[in-house]
């Protein structure tokens, strides 16, 4: 599986148009509590392997994975795609920093 990335603008469009797209925050609970994308699910990358049951059962589900800058989320995307067969996984390029920097799309502070 090749890592696919989505721009903050594309992610925001998905967030507005599809309540079925899961936004997965792989940062720490402390980071998530500080600032997050509304309706996102928090599963720290260190816990992802043990909390897979919280993700959609459909392997083609639309999942946008994010962290602070896109590094941890890229690792999470690779893990979900290569090891667990999720095909609808994309990495938010630049993470929450880029999302916030592109525009204030409705971040919860």
* H/E topology pattern: EHEHEEHEH
Strand order of the largest sheet: 1-5-4-2-3
Helix content: 25-40%
Count of helical stretches = 4
**CATH class designation:** Alpha Beta
- The overall pLDDT, averaged over residues, is 92
What's the count of strands? 5
CATH fold category name: Oxidized Rhodanese, domain 1
Strand content bin: 5-15%
Class from secondary-structure proportions:
alpha/beta
Task: Describe this entry's structure for a reader.
The chain is an alpha/beta fold. It has a single domain, classed as 3-Layer(aba) Sandwich (Oxidized Rhodanese, domain 1), CATH 3.40.250. Helices cover 34% and strands 15% of the residues. It contains 4 helices and 5 strands, in the order E-H-E-H-E-E-H-E-H. It has helices spanning 8-17, 29-34, 71-83, 95-102, and strands spanning 5-6, 22-25, 41-42, 63-66, 89-92. It has a 5-stranded parallel beta sheet. Helix 3 (71-83) links the parallel strand 4 and strand 5 (89-92). The longest helix is centred in the C-terminal third of the chain and has 13 residues, at 71-83. It is globular, with a radius of gyration of 12 Å. It starts with a strand and ends in a 7-residue tail after the last helix. The mean pLDDT is 92.
